[in-house]
Amino acid sequence: MRQDRANTDQLAAEVSLLYRTSQMSALQQRLETASGEMGGRLMVLDESGKVQLDSFSELNGSRLELPEVIGILALNQTADYGVHQLNESADQSLDFHFLKRYDTTSEWVAYCTSALSQDGTIIGVLLFSSPIQDMMERLFALQDRMVLYFLVAAAAAMAIALVFSRVLTRPIAALTRSIQRMGHGDFSVRVPTRGSGEMRKLSETFNAMSEKLEMLDSSRNQFVSNASHELKTPLATMKILLESIIYQPDMEQAVRTEFLTDINKEIDRLNMIIGDLLTLVSMDSQTMRLNRTTFSLSQVVKDTAHRLQPVAEMHHQELKLAINDRCDMYADCAKLSQVVYNLMENALKYTQEGGSIRVRLIRSGRDAVLTVTDNGPGIPKEDQPHIFDRFYRVDKARSRETGGTGLGLSIVHQMVLMHGGSVSVESEEGHGATFTVELPIHQG
After folding, report:
1. CA distance 312 to 433
2. DSSP state letters, 290-346
3. How far apart are CA 52 and CA 363, in angstroms?
4. Boundaries of every domain in the chain
């Protein structure tokens, strides 16, 4: 096409002189020669669009109202080009017949027009028409292939997008289903952790949260069960004793007094359990606050030992203190007093008659270290990780006999943590146990 336009422009410059000087025979001969060389049809039109010369000598005197001709004559363009699909309708019959004269199989034709001018004035038009059926068929075939390629690519893209969408949304859908199950109370649900990146991190975070919630739910259920059991035991005991008093009006006074004394002890036990439960609930809800003051931890240890000395003497136990520093603290004196009391009382309860309990307080750097050691039966290795759990007992029967609730060490653990410290246990079965509390010293 570009070559046809260039050849038309070059020929127009060549034949302009022949047309201006009216050398029609020479011009006709030149058009016929050039028509064969260029493989098309050449015509010269005057300024009104009438054919003056035709290389096929068929349309002389005919008027051609083609857009490419009008562009030269009416719009003063120097050249124009267009592609047309021919048919046998009335308005295109002229184009159809002059093309069919050249190639009876073509339906598409290209028109190249170039201005014939004299002193800058357009005096005519050189029109070159050529069949482009093969080119258009190849173009349409290419267009069909491009459409086919596009449809195939679009289908492949949609399939790939669907696959990737399933790959991406499957973990999200699984996570959504797991959250819904968790919303219905199933905290055992876990999601698979596949792949890498944010989705894997999200799955791992969800599983960690689910595991923690399951542990908390299990702990809550266990706590409620244990608390109910602990509260039920003294109530059942008091009911039996009261029924005995009610249904035995002739009971001896000494026996009645003994039963009432036992009832009073069970009431004290209930009060102790409820007080411990309220303490733990207060710490769990983070409503408990530390009332810090400056005090000597060594004095707290001495005062606690003095309070528990009668209990030790009753069971022929020896309570030894080893204190080498005042360990002045800026902390909550009441809560640390409860920590010391619970540890020492626990050691006295679980140490046999005639045993010994050693309490040692030293200062290590910026920490106060309190150790309570007994020579009792010790704690089995499998029980040691649970020793600070609520209501956990190594010897349940003995604990109830001695009046324990299974909450003392849990309270110790929570109160030490509130002060930023730590508590641990070391024990070998049959060789006693040692509880160690490390507390940071903050002097006011």
Report:
1. 17
2. --EEEEEHHHHHHHHHHHHHHHHHHTT-EEEEEE----EEEEEHHHHHHHHHHHHHH
3. 124
4. 2-131, 198-284, 292-440
Give the architecture (CATH level 2) of 198-284: Orthogonal Bundle (1.10)
Contact indicator for 443, 330 with CB cutoff of 8 Å: yes
- Closest by Cα among 157, 124, 161 to 19: 124
Please give the CATH number for the structural domain made up of 2-131.
3.30.450.20
Q: 47-55: long-range contacts at Cβ-Cβ below 8 A with a sequence spacing of 24 or more?
A: 47/73, 47/122, 47/123, 47/124, 48/73, 49/73, 49/125, 52/19, 52/24, 52/124, 53/24, 53/27, 53/28, 54/98, 55/28, 55/31
Alpha-carbon dihedral angle through residues 420, 280, 413, 293, given to the nearest 10 degrees: 40
Is the CB of residue 408 less than 8 Å from the CB of residue 346? yes
Q: For 207-237, what is each residue's pLDDT tens digit?
A: 888 888 777 777 667 666 666 766 776 788 8
Condensed to tens digits (0 to 9), the pLDDT of residues 262-284 reads 888 778 777 767 776 776 666 66
Find the helix packing angle between 198-247 and 133-183, rounded to 10°: 20
Q: In terms of Cα–Cα distance, which of 2, 119, 129, 113 is closest to 49?
A: 113
**Average confidence (pLDDT) over 2-25:** 87
Q: What is 292-440's CATH topology?
A: Heat Shock Protein 90 (3.30.565)
Q: Cα separation of 75 and 113, whole Å?
A: 13
pLDDT band with cut points at 50, 70 and 90 for residue 359: very high
